């Protein structure tokens, strides 16, 4: 009886010690950096996206706020200026010569100037910007809705994603880019914004054009958009994860 | 065996069912990972606010590093209008070359090094496990009658809650038959955590999702905004930590091996004056 209890006690102690060691040592040095374990954790992203898409009416609107709710100071995150020489000369001329390139799996590849974009069906919305870091800011955005724009150039049937190519470079990892799927492309609040709080976008906020995809986190809202490209897959593009931060480990689906 | 005197003897009684034991340990693992990865996520912006948005001058809690007049650095924690020097723990921690500005220190975050993306992966994967495990527990506990039989306090217990409190303060714990059941303070604490704190933590966590805010705008009204929800989520986590500290303390002072065994094998030793029939 005494022996059995001692054995049991020894077993419990050892179990606790092993469990503790796995958690303290293993998580950091082995598990967090293990590609296969990281993929396992990422499966939760599939579950999150699946369930959210399931319960999400594709048209559900993000909450819109009033002018009194506008942030006094809207933090500019990520790139706040662009070094690219091509961009600099365009900025110098007030983006008069800038054109948005629309290509990829579309029937009529097109280039649109800012003046032409401003004539397209537009939307103005006061929405909350949620950064993946945890902070939120409220701003008013005006821009061309993506849905009518893409309908006018004709999406090919095999187009599944829209990739946004940007002018800015963060770190040494190449130019910023992002991608969204057609559910968000055709959402009424998804716009290519040229105005913020009633004035043309400033450089820290992505002049001359940035994406607003209101039901996802801030890093999806690509700034300094130079071109958009319809694709069937982004698996062979750059890091293969569909975006600058995605290639560094963040979720492609940023609805949470 | 045939002792004629009625002497106290120890018998093992069956105390915790298999589902309760499994879900308890899965839950414990989930809460540990959720806490540590949650602090990693918190560290990405170590400031809390109330309302919809983050106005830097209206923070209710913040942790940051500042430079002292002599050039050295200090960790500062501000709660409301009160500022505390928390160097080494909050705001600034690590030593030598690893000294860095961070909300919570490396030893309590997952991963220990700064990596928001990996912290989020841990957090959301274990959030799923936590919710599924919690649902399994709830379904079992209600369907099996465990909730009504073992968790709901009786009127008599509530009337004598004062006695139970004074017994606890003096570290007198129930013995014999009484020890087979949860006492009233235990029941109330478990009920508050299972039906209050944990659901509130889940709801406030979900409110931080911009997609779910679009689908269920009521979530934003319930908490008074996304930043309020983030603060409530932090407070819920603090409450859970407090509960676990008290829980582990009670386990330690009321017989650690007996309690651990009962949550692993289900068997709990009690002293009884009758023959063993457990």
Tell me what the structure shows.
The complex is a heterodimer of chains A (256) and B (278). With 256 residues, chain A is α+β, with helices and mostly antiparallel strands. Chain A folds into 2 domains: 2-50, no CATH class; 64-247, Oxidoreductase, molybdopterin-binding domain (Sulfite Oxidase, Chain A, domain 2, Alpha-Beta Complex), CATH 3.90.420.10. Chain A has helices at residues 2-31, 35-55, 85-92, 114-118, 146-153, 182-185, 244-247, and strands at residues 99-104, 110-113, 122-130, 136-145, 161-169, 175-181, 191-196, 199-200, 210-212, 225-231. Chain B has 278 residues and is an alpha+beta fold. Chain B has 2 domains: 9-45 and 113-272, Fumarate Reductase Cytochrome B subunit (Up-down Bundle); 47-103, no CATH class. Chain B is built from 10 helices and 8 strands. In chain B, the strands form 3 sheets. A 4-stranded antiparallel beta sheet of chain B has the order 2-3-4-5. In chain B, a hairpin with a 2-residue loop joins strand 4 (73-79) and strand 5. Chain B is globular and about 75 Å long. The mean pLDDT of chain B is 92. The chains are: A alpha+beta (256), B alpha+beta (278). At the A-B interface, helix 1, helix 2 and strand 4 of A face helix 1, helix 2, helix 7, helix 9 and helix 10 of B.
What is the secondary structure topology, with strand pairs?
The complex is a heterodimer of chains A (256) and B (278).
Chain A: H1 2-31, H2 35-55, H3 85-92, E1 99-104, E2 110-113, H4 114-118, E3 122-130, E4 136-145, H5 146-153, E5 161-169, E6 175-181, H6 182-185, E7 191-196, E8 199-200, E9 210-212, E10 225-231, H7 244-247
Parallel strand pairs in A: 1-10
Antiparallel strand pairs in A: 1-2, 3-4, 4-7, 5-6, 5-10, 7-8, 7-9
Chain B: E1 9-14, H1 18-43, E2 47-48, E3 61-67, E4 73-79, E5 82-85, E6 91-93, E7 100-102, H2 116-143, H3 146-151, H4 155-159, H5 161-169, H6 184-207, H7 210-215, H8 218-223, H9 226-253, H10 256-264, E8 267-272
Antiparallel strand pairs in B: 1-8, 2-3, 3-4, 4-5, 6-7
Helix pairs in contact in B: 1-2, 6-9
């Amino acid at each position: 009886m005494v022996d059995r209890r001692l054995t049991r006690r020894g077993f419990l102690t050892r179990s606790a010690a092993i469990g503790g060691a796995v958690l303290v040592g293993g998580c950091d040095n082995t598990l967090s950096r293990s590609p296969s374990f990281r993929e396992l954790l990422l499966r939760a992203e599939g579950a999150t996206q699946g369930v959210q898409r399931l319960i999400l009416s594709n048209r559900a609107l993000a909450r819109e706020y009033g002018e009194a709710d506008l942030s006094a100071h809207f933090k500019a995150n990520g790139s706040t200026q662009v070094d690219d020489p091509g961009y600099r000369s365009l900025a110098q001329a007030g983006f008069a010569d800038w054109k948005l390139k629309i290509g990829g799996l579309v029937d009529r590849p097109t280039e649109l100037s800012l003046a032409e974009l401003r004539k397209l069906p537009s939307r103005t919305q006061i929405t909350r910007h949620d950064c993946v870091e945890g902070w939120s800011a409220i701003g008013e955005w005006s821009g061309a809705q993506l849905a009518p724009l893409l309908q006018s150039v004709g999406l090919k049937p095999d187009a599944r994603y829209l990739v946004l190519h940007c002018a800015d470079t963060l770190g040494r990892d190449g130019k910023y880019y992002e991608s969204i799927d057609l559910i968000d492309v055709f959402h009424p609040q998804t716009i290519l914004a040229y105005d913020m709080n009633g004035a043309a976008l400033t450089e820290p906020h992505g002049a001359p054009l940035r994406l607003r995809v209101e039901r996802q986190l801030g890093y999806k809202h690509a700034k300094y958009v130079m071109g958009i490209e319809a694709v069937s897959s982004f698996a062979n593009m750059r890091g293969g994860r569909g975006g600058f931060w995605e290639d560094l480990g963040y979720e492609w689906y940023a609805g949470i | 065996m045939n002792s004629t005197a009625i002497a106290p003897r120890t018998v093992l009684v069956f105390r915790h069912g298999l589902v309760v034991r499994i879900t308890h340990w899965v839950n414990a693992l989930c809460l540990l990972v959720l806490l540590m990865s949650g602090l990693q996520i918190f560290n990405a912006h170590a400031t809390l606010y109330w309302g919809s948005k983050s106005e830097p001058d209206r923070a209710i809690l913040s942790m940051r590093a500042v430079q002292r007049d002599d050039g050295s650095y200090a960790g500062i924690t501000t709660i409301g209008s009160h500022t505390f020097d928390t160097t080494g723990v909050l705001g600034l921690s690590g030593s030598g070359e690893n000294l860095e500005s961070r909300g919570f220190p490396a030893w309590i975050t997952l991963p220990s090094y700064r990596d928001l993306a990996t912290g989020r992966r841990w957090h959301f994967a274990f959030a799923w496990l936590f919710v599924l495990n919690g649902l399994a527990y709830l379904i079992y506990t209600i369907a099996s009658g465990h909730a009504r039989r073992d968790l709901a306090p009786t009127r008599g217990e509530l009337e004598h809650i004062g006695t139970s409190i004074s017994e606890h303060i003096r570290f007198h714990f129930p013995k014999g038959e009484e020890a087979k059941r949860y006492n009233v303070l235990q029941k109330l604490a478990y009920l508050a955590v299972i039906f209050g704190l944990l659901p509130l933590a889940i709801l406030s966590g979900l409110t931080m999702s911009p997609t779910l805010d679009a689908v269920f705008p009521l979530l934003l009204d319930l908490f008074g905004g996304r930043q309020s929800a983030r603060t409530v989520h932090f407070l819920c986590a603090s409450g859970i930590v407090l509960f676990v500290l008290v829980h582990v303390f009670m386990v330690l002072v009321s017989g650690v091996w007996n309690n651990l065994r009962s949550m692993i094998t289900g068997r709990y030793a009690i002293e009884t004056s009758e023959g063993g029939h457990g």
